[in-house]
Amino acid sequence: MPEKAWGGRFSEKTDRIVEAFTSSIDIDKRLYSYDIEGSIAHCKMLAEQSIITHEDALLLIQGLGTIKKEIERGEFRFDDSLEDIHMHIEARLVKEAGKVAGKLHTARSRNDQVALDVRMYLRDETSNIIKNLVEFRKTIVDLAKINIDVVLPGYTHLQRAQPVLLAHHLMSYYEMFSRDTERFCDCLKRINVMPLGSAALAGTTYPIDRDYTARLLGFPKVSKNSIDSVSDRDFIIEFLSSASLCMVHLSRISEELILWSSSEFGFVGLPDSFSTGSSIMPQKKNPDVCELVRGKTGRVFGDLIALLTVMKSLPLAYNRDMQEDKGPLFDAVDTLKGCVGIYIKMLPKLKINKEAMRRATSTGFLNATDLADYLVTKGMHFRKAHSCVGEAVSYALNKNKELHELTLEELKSFSLLIEEDIFSILTVEQMIDRRKSFGGTAVKNVMAAIEEAEKNLNQ
């Protein structure tokens, strides 16, 4: 059994059940490349500051490189007794480089070491997620552009409300995922701060150069307070919060595709390659991908709540509870990346049923507001116009007709302000094209939004 790095003060060996219970190697071993990269930078800084010799630094760096290759080849042996990835690498380095390996941990603690590893990991993963979201937004814009002529009912309370362009509907998701992208970009600023050199909590007596280490590792900022540096997990919580909100948006689009692909709607057809069947009902084609994305949303919420709960009552500085930060973090990263990735591939294969969407705009009195607006332009105040059209809708319901199917005489019975020109106003095309207010569903507006999105994405 390897000697503990902290074992000098103890007279008994750690019980095996405690070793298994406190070990985090099954989770944090995925940080190995960041741990080695951080150790190499730390080693270079120690040599630069004459805390260790350049010869010793070279031996340590070579040994760390050998260990990295061993892990990548799957030849590295993991052991619960070594607790975490940091101690595994350090113990293996002793065998590789000899006694000089004991100098590597000079002027640092596992507290600032793990904070560094997690920040480096999350910096890379957040950057990857940002890139994936950019690609996903391009996919949405492309789908909107090729369907610029498709109309469908817009809904409120899941009831047909007013006709909109499908492209306008899709671009609303572009806006959501654009905000998500901005959130992750902003979150990245607080992730990208270098904590190494804070040691256990109070800093170190050695003449280290934290700015030099930060430059080697690509950090634009160095943490300002050693206590905060080792006890801060705000940057993970902020990431998990951004991930949760992004999953909300993925869940919402999933819900719509589930509804739209049902027989009751028939608006879209999901690709066979992204659907599954039933083990008992041969006719079934199930939207399992969308349902799983919707279901995994709760999982990411749980990751956020888990870490909030871990951190909510911790006194400063580091506490072992914080070992529980990596499970939720890794799970949320993997889940979000998987969901965005599958949508990037699935969305372009979506079959749009233009005719079904168009038919759905012809019923449900979607033009009622336009009739009210027409009366307002003729001089009637809106509340009166609203009431007047409500009476017309009630009449039409009893006649089993839509408003545009009523005769002029029938319409005039509700207001003499109504003239023959009303019938051109009540068409789907007019209802859409007349909504030219900024952000509205008029074709010119939506095309302008698509062009602006394309310009922004190409930048």
State the main characteristics.
Fumarase C, Chain A, domain 2, 459 residues, two-stranded antiparallel ribbon, mainly alpha, 3 domains, two-stranded parallel ribbon, Ribonucleotide Reductase Protein R1, domain 1
Describe the structure.
The chain has 19 helices and six strands. The protein has 459 residues and is mostly helical. The protein has three domains: 7-106, Orthogonal Bundle (Fumarase C, Chain B, domain 1); 111-196 and 224-359, Fumarase C, Chain A, domain 2 (Up-down Bundle); 362-458, Ribonucleotide Reductase Protein R1, domain 1 (Orthogonal Bundle), CATH 1.10.40.30. A two-stranded antiparallel sheet has the order 1-2. Strand 1 (151-156) and strand 2 form a beta hairpin. Helix 3 (32-48) packs across helix 6 and helix 10 packs parallel to helix 12 (326-346). The longest helix has 37 residues, at 110-146. The relative contact order is 0.10. The mean pLDDT is 95.
